Amino acid sequence: MSAKILALDTATENCSVALLVDEKVYVRSEVAPRDHTKKILPMVDEVLKEAGVALADLDALAFGRGPGSFTGVRIGIGIAQGLAFGADLPMIGVSTLEAMAQGCFRKHNASHVACAIDARMSEVYWGRFVRQQDGTWAQFDQEQVIPPAVLAEQSQADEHVWSTAGTGWDAYGEALAGLKFNREGSDVLFPDAEDIVQIAKLELEKGNTLDAEEASPTYLRDTVAWKKLPGRE
């Protein structure tokens, strides 16, 4: 199935955009923790111009739905919704943890990936994923926010070697060293729209899209996010 999909992500320190046109991908990516709002729309304009397509020509708009920075996730979804509303496009939300698993596959052909994003507050956003024959990813561990020491204590050995992805491994290396399964490091630190767009293509083929007003974030730490809203301190 040929497809034209725009993907964007601002859920972590990395700000990225990818445009899939048939089988070619146009990408922009920059680690810019405090400049997402300044950089994301120019990146969108650049890839559309490079590909020679208009927003209205697209089949869908994909976005990193989180988990990640509360502010970053909101920025990404808000901009994605605005673009989708304006061009009347369906949307596809993709887990940022799953996107890192896809990044490990793209770079290292990894099929078993353990993802940990530094969630601050002495916790990580955690998930493990196993690549399926059809190119999709199955959750081995449910996505969650958890203290690394608790995660290590609850872990169990298995026969696989898990590629690691995300900032949590460097942030909490000592605690995560207690995990009971085998691991090998990778250079994948952040989710990237280049990988989100590939996951979104498979979702589009299955008809798994949302109307723009239905797009929602995955915070995993909803109670903390709620408390940070104005008037809810």
Automatic annotation (TrEMBL):
Protein name: tRNA threonylcarbamoyladenosine biosynthesis protein TsaB
InterPro entries recorded: ATPase_NBD, Gcp-like_dom, T6A_TsaB
Broad class of the protein's primary localization: cytoplasm
Gcp-like domain segment(s): 30-225
Localization of this protein: Cytoplasm
Signal peptide limits: none
NCBIfam families given in the database record: T6A_YeaZ
GO cellular component: cytosol
GO biological processes: tRNA threonylcarbamoyladenosine modification
